[in-house]
Write a structure and sequence with these properties.
This protein is of the alpha/beta class and 252 residues long. Helices cover 37% and strands 14% of the residues. The chain has a 7-stranded parallel sheet.
Length: 252
């Protein structure tokens, strides 16, 4: 399928029900699969919950900006467990969320963000992994605030994973690309109608893909493009390669 769509690599989601990064046998099995196939692991999405039910069991989320220091430390420890898999699975980027859905911007958010990124960056560097911070639908991760976090913290090695669906809901994809600019190293590509984070196929929502492609083309270094479509919308596997190819084509 990868050769038919032009896909060269994938992003692994560190959700234990999807990929249990704490299970050495499972990690080894996935590493063996990548070695035997042409598809490579470009990135890993950091865990959002430490359980196998995405928090439905009552387990607290992985929140790097939580007011309680113990919760912030626990979040960093959980992400480090996922990062350790890079010893066997050679992904080069880790996509990180700063906070949860209602995270506001404050001096504390700035401080906690910088502390988390410094700590995780020091852990990731020997593993050959770069941190990429994702823009969320929160005040704390507005484009200007992400720039502030990285600039004040002198976090030059940390990049941005541009989530196009989030950008479209917030203020428009092209404008967010202009603000974040050269920091963008990867993108999560999906569509919506500007209200909910629907994770639609490109073209099934209201994102202006021609303008988006033009804005991306203006960047000095083209970022990676990672499709992030809702699982219920994948459809028939027989037509999936054509849909993937059509989605990539919208970005030029």
């Amino acid at each position: 399928m990868a050769s038919r769509t032009g896909a060269e690599a994938v992003e692994i989601f560190a959700a234990r029900q999807h990929f249990d990064y704490t299970d050495r046998e499972e990690v080894t099995e996935l590493a063996d699969w990548f070695r035997a196939n042409p598809l490579s692991p470009f990135s890993m999405h950091a865990p959002l919950y430490p359980d196998k039910e995405m928090g439905r069991s009552g387990t607290p989320s992985v929140n790097l900006l939580h007011p309680e220091k113990a919760r912030r430390i626990a979040a960093m420890d959980e992400i480090k467990r996922a990062l350790e898999t890079a010893e066997l699975i050679p992904f080069k980027n880790l996509v990180v969320h700063l906070g949860e859905r209602t995270e506001s911007w404050s001096n504390e958010a700035l401080e906690y963000s910088q502390t988390a990124l410094e700590h995780l960056g020091a852990f990731a560097h020997p593993l050959g992994v770069r941190l990429l911070v994702e823009n969320l639908l929160t005040e704390a991760t507005e484009p200007e605030h992400l720039n502030t976090i990285l600039e004040i913290g002198h976090l030059d090695s940390v990049g941005i994973c541009l989530d196009m669906g989030h950008a479209h809901i917030a203020r428009g994809v092209s404008e967010v690309i202009e603000v974040l600019g050269k920091r963008i190293a990867s993108t999560h590509v999906h569509d919506n109608h500007g209200v909910r984070d629907e994770h639609l196929w490109p073209g099934d929502g209201s994102i202006d893909w021609a303008a988006t492609a033009k804005a991306l083309a203006a960047l000095t270094t083209p970022p990676a493009t990672v499709l992030e479509i809702h699982p219920t919308l994948l459809g028939d596997t027989a037509t999936l390669p054509e849909r993937v190819a059509a989605a990539f084509a919208k970005l030029g």
